[in-house]
């Protein structure tokens, strides 16, 4: 049975995130999509996992069917909003894609006692805003200059939502239709602020440093990802003993869309291995 929920807030100023819960099992897997993504990014692709796990899909603050307040979409604000979803659920495995991976890592570092495992898919890691600018402007990303200029990014967002929204599924043919339709379910404020304050300015290495003695982390990355280059993530895997990197050859920034069965197998195996390790006398 699927439950569509908007969880109640404790204070009027607290945002209420949109959540879908289905499946059953002892362990809970929480999925958080990337920039412009929603619960529909995962919903039809996690059915096998739902046979043995409780699945929780969350629309981040400012995206999908979650509220879109006029605020700064900082890491801390995203984490606080997510905490109100996760607090009642008990220990969980967090799975995040792209922007969602950064927020998942930040959440785990701040709430280590409530997160059992962490899976980061297509993790963007630049190290600094300047490094992100350099890569986006000089690297292989088309239109990278637009996405390193706040005004141009804002205009692109407004034009996409208001003028191109209905025809986007006909323009973007390599992404499933329902996901493309949801790319307009945000505001220029939520999209632009999340991009700058989370992707460009937040360094996930600091979060992984906190997690190193506490939790194992699985990174799943496409070898041909140009939006979140692989080399810096390899560097993280080399730097932190608890980070395991699985590279899927020939895949781009969306390995969960291109090879959902393989990704689900990797996640299920990672969860089982961590569970067995925890049961060992010295685990």
Mean pLDDT figure: 91
Overall radius of gyration: 18 Å
State the low-pLDDT regions, or none. Answer: 6-12
The largest pleated sheet is described as: 8 strands, mixed
**N-to-C series of helices and strands:** EEEHEHEHEHHHHHHEHEHH
Spatial strand arrangement across the major sheet = 1-2-4-3-5-6-7-8
**Cα separation of the termini:** 35 Å
3D structure, described in words:
There is one protein chain. With 283 residues, this protein is of the alpha/beta class. The chain has twelve helices and eight strands. The protein has an eight-stranded mixed β-sheet with strand order 1-2-4-3-5-6-7-8, with helices on both faces. Strand 5, helix 3 and strand 6 form a beta-alpha-beta unit. Helix 2 packs across helix 3 and helix 3 crosses helix 9. The longest helix is centred in the last third of the chain and has 20 residues. The protein is globular. About 2% of the residues have low confidence.
Give the tags.
single chain, 283 residues, alpha/beta, 8-stranded mixed sheet, 12 helices, 16% strand, globular
Quick summary:
The protein is α/β, with parallel strands linked by helices. 41% of the residues lie in helices and 16% in strands. Helix 3 crosses helix 9 and helix 5 packs across helix 8 (188-200).
Please write out the topology.
Blueprint: E1 3-6, E2 18-23, E3 28-32, H1 47-50, E4 54-58, H2 75-86, E5 92-97, H3 99-110, E6 115-121, H4 129-138, H5 150-162, H6 168-171, H7 177-181, H8 188-200, H9 204-211, E7 217-222, H10 230-239, E8 243-248, H11 255-258, H12 260-279
Parallel strand pairs: 3-4, 3-5, 5-6, 6-7, 7-8
Antiparallel strand pairs: 1-2, 2-4
Helix pairs in contact: 2-3, 3-9, 5-8
């Amino acid at each position: 049975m699927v439950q569509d929920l908007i969880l109640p807030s404790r204070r009027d100023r607290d945002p209420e995130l949109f959540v879908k819960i289905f499946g059953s099992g002892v362990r809970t897997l929480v999925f958080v999509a990337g920039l412009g993504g929603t619960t529909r990014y995962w919903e039809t692709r996690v059915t096998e996992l739902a046979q043995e796990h409780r699945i929780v899909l969350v629309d981040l603050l400012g995206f999908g069917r979650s509220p879109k307040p006029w605020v700064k979409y900082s890491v801390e604000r995203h984490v606080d909003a997510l905490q109100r979803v996760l607090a009642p659920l008990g220990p969980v495995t967090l799975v995040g894609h792209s922007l969602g991976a950064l927020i998942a890592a930040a959440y785990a570092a701040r709430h280590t006692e409530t997160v059992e495992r962490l899976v980061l898919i297509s993790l963007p890691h630049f190290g600094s805003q300047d490094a992100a600018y350099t890569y986006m402007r000089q690297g292989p990303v088309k239109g990278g200059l637009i996405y390193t200029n706040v005004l141009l990014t804002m205009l692109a967002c407004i034009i996409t939502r208001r003028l191109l929204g209905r025809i986007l599924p006909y323009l973007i043919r390599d992404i499933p239709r329902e996901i493309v339709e949801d790319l307009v379910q945000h505001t220029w404020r939520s999209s632009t602020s999340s991009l700058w304050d989370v992707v460009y300015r937040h360094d996930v290495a600091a979060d992984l440093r906190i997690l190193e003695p506490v939790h194992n982390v699985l990174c799943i990355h496409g070898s041909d990802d140009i939006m979140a280059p692989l080399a810096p993530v390899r560097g993280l895997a080399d730097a932190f003993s608890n980070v395991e990197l699985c590279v899927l050859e020939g895949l781009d920034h969306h390995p969960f869309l291109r090879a959902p069965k393989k990704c689900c197998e990797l996640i299920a195996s990672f969860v089982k291995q961590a569970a067995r390790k925890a049961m060992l006398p010295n685990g």
